[in-house]
Amino acid sequence: MKKDKFTSIRAFGILAAIQFVLTLLFLFLPVMRSSFSRVITFALSLFELSGVQEIQILKDLLFVIFRIPLLLLGAGYLQSRYSSSEANILIRQVSMWKYYLKNLARLYLMSLCNFFAILIALAIYLLPDLFMGLTSQDLLFLRQMSPLIILYPLSGFVLLLYVNLVTLFTPAKYNSFIGLSAILINMLLFKIPLVIIQSWIQYSPLAAQSFNYIGTQISVNETAASIGIEIRLHGNVLILFVSLLVQILFLSVITSKKLRTMDYL
Amino acid sequence: MNYVELKNYGKEIQGRRVLNNINLEVPQNQIVGLLGRNASGKTMLLRAISGLIRPTSGTVKVRGNILTSAHPFPQSMGIIIETVNFWPHYSGFSCLKILAGIKNTIDDAKIKDTLQRVGLDPDDKMPVRKYSMGMKQRLAIAQAIMEEPELLLLDEPTNSLDTQSRGIFRNIMLEENRRGATIIIASHIREDLELCCKSFYCIENGEIQKEADNGMI
After folding, report:
1. What number is the ipTM of this complex?
2. How far apart are CA B149 and CA A159, in angstroms?
3. Parallel, antiparallel, or unpaired: how do β-strands B57-62 and B2-13 relate?
4. Which residues of B are less than 8 Å from A259 in CB distance?
């Protein structure tokens, strides 16, 4: 099965390469950033939003860009693995449970590839600063962000599980649409001023979006006050981690139950 | 003894009845043909027997065991359903080796022998993406028979095969039958089924009848 695994890794490598190039383009091409910014600012001006809101939405949209390749390419992954075009693989499985777990592992691998592609692109962008030497403030900033090494790929995996679960109930032609919808719903949830939603969202896969702030050199005080990094990463990081694990368990049970009763068309 | 048995099998997909009250008995070690027009329900019936779809009503028994969600697939089965997906960047031998690696019941020599049987060169390094349609079909036949399954379900197996390859296919089916395999072949071309099937059923609008009507095609 070594070659089968290698094939998957190659496919995920393509995903990582797309993400890597996209992130690098965004970081290194001011033209791309400014055009993107102008288009969004114009669009937002139609809704008469204030400057602060515009900046927030711009940051959210950046997050969207970081998630697009993962969710578009990963949407419907499970659906495609349980179709009659894969019948020659399916009927040979000694244990369908092991096959299911293997597919889940591949979803996680997909998220991991995506994360490291972003990380490497950011490292390249920040390389000149790193050669200049790190200040204590930089080290503190990195320390605060370090839990994201676990949380970001885990949250991508949970998002993929949500998307894949929905695609099991819908025709394959809607997969990309469902992937994109997941990102838009993610953005919208942050804007809904309901206590119950805002309480839940801190423990959802979306909470790891503070990854956006990596590379933005801001003072510790400002960081703690404006985006609540101190609170989120020190106060709730463990709960967030546990919450993600619970969601994985919950989604896995529902997905496996659905796969046992669905038709492999 | 019946190797495959469907009792009052019905299947509804999105409100449409695709298989209706199917009663089918395929004795062990028989070659049976399913003859029907496009979209008559042949492929869906093969999916039902293979366990790829769950019944809305009725049951499927293979070798005396009812297929359930806990044990959806028959234990020993080779299958061609529509187009078989292979890994396009690997050679035919590598693709079969990947598939054989799932169960791990046969060795490289057996894979090479199977490739030779279907008329492919086992040492050919050409990737599958460069194969002609006929070569892909021969590779699909090879993956179905390589592990010597007790049950073979083949959907339009002679598609894209030339006259010579059809002859090879016929001989392989007869050899597999002599080995003890039960074979069900679906096609919309009567001549293809006559190559090797001893009996065949006609399927129309998701319903099955004994014996095909010549005038139907």
Report:
1. 0.91
2. 40
3. antiparallel
4. none
